[in-house]
Design a protein that fits this description.
Oligomer: single chain
Number of strands: 11
CATH architecture: Alpha-Beta Complex
CATH superfamily: Amidase signature (AS) domain
Distance between the termini: 14 Å
Structural class: alpha/beta
Strand order of the largest sheet: 1-3-2-4-6-5-10-11-9-7-8
Largest sheet: 11 strands, mixed
Helix content: 40-55%
Number of helices: 17
């Protein structure tokens, strides 16, 4: 199943591949490795096959419901999907009046995207490592011996891709929850601009900072899926990918210059990113120094809980008070610490976010994109972050580079650039201004075309089978 979505879409339409055969291959991989990898909280093989059969029927009749017809897609357990309960990583299903399918899933289903099931999430998406004491923590497939974290909060999303049960994974990103699991599992993750994709039908963590996002096995696949779902793209995904590839008359320019995004990284991670950038500079990539001092304030807000803790605490108290009693200890402790702030403090943080976002937007006038490592540390073993005292510093470290995009109103993407000294994937993060996803994807595609797709670059995950 090495073909890209670009190729598979053509094969499904010329009749050389059926959606049912494609889905059966993916479901076979799911059956072989679940529950060992624990990517899914609720697999949906019957629904998946039903959709695949319908996709085959309409395609045979000459009707094309959309570019994701017959493509296996996993969905984070924050998205409401009619017929599948939503638990948002908690012990119980959320109230029925909240569990209503929204526009993104509507669009996926109208295209006959074959939903493989609900993937695991940190409870209420509040954490960057991917651990969940209620439902178990998915296994990072890149370590066959030690149970390492898969990244969160979209913890099952990247695992489902490496497992081979899905070819696209829908996630959410409030401080890094698409990009961290993508980085830790050797996949590609796109955090869309705030307001670009609708959030209705997605359980809220922070209405101020929540964004929807997508993960896939390559930049090309992410670009394809983005074009298939994005309301602003008028090209077909095939035209969109081709246009991105042809968009550079010269070569891309990246800003390196913010030391804060590099200095705290493990040596092997920062060195690997630097070597890849140096190699790309010999192929035409232009690297420039440019500061982004707003990262200092964004990091301070992260350590204070930003507005996230307060917004989740208020929502649970107002709408789901009984859920507070059963919170995962790692989630509950952080909600209590960050949620007990005054309305005045919340408003003050909102003003700070607007101020630093506006200031950062001005700095991006001097360069196209900024680049840095995605996650500064290797994925730790689950046993090492089981208690709040050991969990906190590692969780903050993992969020430290990704939170910048959310707090500064940027869009961002991570793609793999190699393996660290522990044999775990390392991601490179690209940051772009609000609503500049096309420039972001075009640059990432240029990089991928020069260094190779993740499967070529990293090989197979030793614990995937």
């Amino acid at each position: 199943m090495s073909d890209s979505l670009y190729q598979l879409g053509r094969q499904l339409r010329d009749g050389s591949l059926s959606a049912r055969d494609l889905v059966d291959q993916c479901l076979e991989r799911l059956q072989k490795s679940e529950p060992r990898l624990n990517a899914y909280t609720l697999p949906a093989p019957d629904l998946c096959r039903t959709i695949a059969n319908a996709a085959d029927s309409v395609l045979r009749c000459g009707t094309d419901p959309g570019p994701l017809a017959g493509i296996p897609v996993s969905v984070k357990d924050l998205y409401s999907v009619t017929g599948l309960k939503t638990c948002a990583g908690s012990p119980n299903a959320i109230p029925a009046e909240m569990d209503l399918q929204g526009p993104l899933i509507d669009q996926l289903r109208q295209q006959f995207g074959a939903i493989t099931g609900k993937t695991h999430t940190v409870e209420f998406a509040f954490g960057g490592l991917g651990v969940n004491s209620h439902r178990g923590t998915p296994v990072n497939p890149w370590d066959a011996k030690t149970h390492r974290v898969p990244g969160g909060s979209s913890s099952g999303a990247g695992v489902s891709l490496i497992q081979g049960s899905a070819m696209v994974a829908l996630g959410t990103d409030t401080a890094g929850s698409v990009r961290i699991p993508a980085s830790m599992t050797g996949t590609v993750g796109l955090k869309t601009s705030a307001g670009r994709w609708p959030l209705k039908g997605i359980f809220p963590l922070s209405p101020t900072l929540d964004t929807a996002g997508v993960l896939a096995r390559s930049v090309e696949d992410v670009a394809f899926a983005f074009a298939a779902l994005d309301p602003l793209i008028t090209d077909s995904p095939w035209e969109f990918v081709d246009r991105l590839r042809n968009s550079f008359q010269g070569n891309p320019t990246l800003a390196l210059g913010e030391p804060l995004l590099w200095d705290h990284c493990s040596n092997d991670i920062s060195s690997l990113n630097s070597r890849v950038l140096s190699s790309l500079s010999h192929k035409g990539l232009k690297l420039v120094d440019a500061a982004l001092p707003e990262t200092v304030d964004a990091r301070k807000l992260l350590h204070q809980g930003n507005v996230i803790s307060a917004e989740l605490a208020e929502f649970l108290a107002a709408e789901m008070p009984t859920w507070i009693e059963t919170l995962d200890p790692l989630v509950g402790a952080r909600i209590r610490d960050g949620g007990a702030i005054s309305a005045g403090e919340w408003l003050g943080r909102q003003r700070r976010l607007k101020r630093i976002s506006a200031s950062a937007a001005e700095r991006f006038r001097n360069f196209d994109l900024m680049v840095c490592p995605t996650v500064p540390v290797t994925p730790p073993p689950v046993a090492e972050v089981a208690e709040i005292e050991s969990y906190r510093p590692v969780n903050m470290a993992c969020l430290s580079n990704t939170c910048i995009a959310n707090s500064l109103s940027l869009c961002a993407l991570t793609l793999p650039v190699g393996l660290d000294e522990a044999g775990m994937p390392v991601g490179m993060q690209l940051l772009a201004p609000l609503f500049q996803e096309e420039r972001l994807l075009a640059t990432a595609l240029w990089i991928e075309d020069h260094i190779g797709k993740p499967g070529e670059l990293l090989g197979n995950a030793p614990g995937a089978e």
